[in-house]
Design goal:
Length: about 325
């Protein structure tokens, strides 16, 4: 994994303080979170940041749109006939509702595969791996393997051709040899990648730029079906719904949040040091206001749900992105 900033012009570690998120209880500070954030363009240049643009973290589920590239490029998506809905569920961290499970099942059905092939866990209180929030990704993995005549039983192993293709594609987007990328097992069993925050932002700059056919198809599917990406009331779904088809949003566990604006070739990546979801959502809305990517009405609706969890509680964000 390359640690230098040479691939990301302007990403030096000169002191720019991270953002701070405070939970206020009746106006009194109860908890605080430190948050790093960065804005990159398609050339990997860090344009704005708060904190450390080279902060290392696992990208977790924010990797899913890029894991779905093999589903597109292999022809498995087209052969299965599930269209944009199938591609959206492949990118999802969904709520496990019957509607979500049904879409994941349709991906398997199109590839003539049984749900028993899924190697994601059965969620607590659930009855099937189809209810796991990563079932769409796993279904797309299996459909791709069937299309390419790759082994099905070992599809989650890092050395499997499927996972090697995913890492190769990510390396191409980052301008790095795939061998330099560090992977580890995610909670669903699939590999995830350890990246600098600026590298995550670069991936999302590419995703929103509409310049590469596979990424344009993926971003279109996500925006066309935001309810499949997370679920009604959940942050990614509501942000994309209220962004009127212009803002992509995909979160990951342990305080990861990535954003891009369609057609602008800019990506945003956020990492909360202590992994708190509430802090990453608060920072995302704070930065979206600073970048002017959402209307005031949309921002206010999102704030009402995500920054004011109760009458006596409020999340405040201190600091802002600075030009590098």
């Amino acid at each position: 994994m390359a640690q230098s900033s040479s691939s990301f012009p302007g990403s030096s570690r000169s002191l720019i303080p991270p953002l701070e998120v405070r939970l206020l209880r009746n106006g009194i500070v109860e908890s605080q979170h430190r948050v790093h954030a960065v804005v990159c363009d398609q050339r990997g240049r860090v344009l704005m940041r708060s904190g450390d643009s080279q902060q290392l973290s696992f990208i977790r589920s924010a990797l899913k749109p890029f894991q779905a590239t093999t589903f597109v490029s292999s022809g498995a998506l087209e052969k299965g006939g599930t269209g944009d809905r199938g591609l959206a569920i492949a990118c999802a961290s969904h709520a496990g509702t019957p509607a979500h499970a049904r879409e994941a099942f349709r991906v398997l059905w199109g590839a003539e595969l049984d749900a028993e092939r899924l190697q994601c866990p059965i969620p607590k209180g659930g009855h099937s791996p189809l209810e796991h929030n990563c079932s769409g990704k796993h279904a797309a993995f299996l459909a791709t393997c069937r299309q390419m005549h790759w082994p099905l039983e070992s599809y989650l192993q890092p050395a499997h051709p499927l996972q090697q293709e995913v890492i190769k594609r990510v390396g191409e987007l980052l301008g790095l040899p795939a061998a330099e990328l560090v992977s580890a097992r995610d909670d669903c069993g699939a590999p995830t990648l350890q990246l600098q925050l600026a590298q995550m932002a670069l991936l999302y700059a590419h995703l929103g730029a509409s310049a590469q056919a596979d990424l344009e198809q993926i971003s279109r599917a996500m925006l066309a079906h935001p309810a499949l990406i997370a679920g009604p009331g959940r942050f990614d779904t509501e942000l994309m719904r209220l962004g009127h088809g212009q803002v992509l949003s995909k979160g990951g566990a342990e305080g990861i949040q990535c954003l891009s604006r369609i057609g602008e070739g800019l990506g945003v990546a956020i990492k909360v040091e202590d992994g708190a979801s509430r802090a990453k959502h608060a920072v995302a809305l704070h930065l979206l206001e600073q970048l002017d990517w959402l209307t005031p009405a949309s921002l206010e609706e999102l704030r009402a749900h995500h920054l004011r969890p109760a009458d006596h509680l409020r999340l405040d964000v201190l600091g802002e992105l600075r030009f590098t």
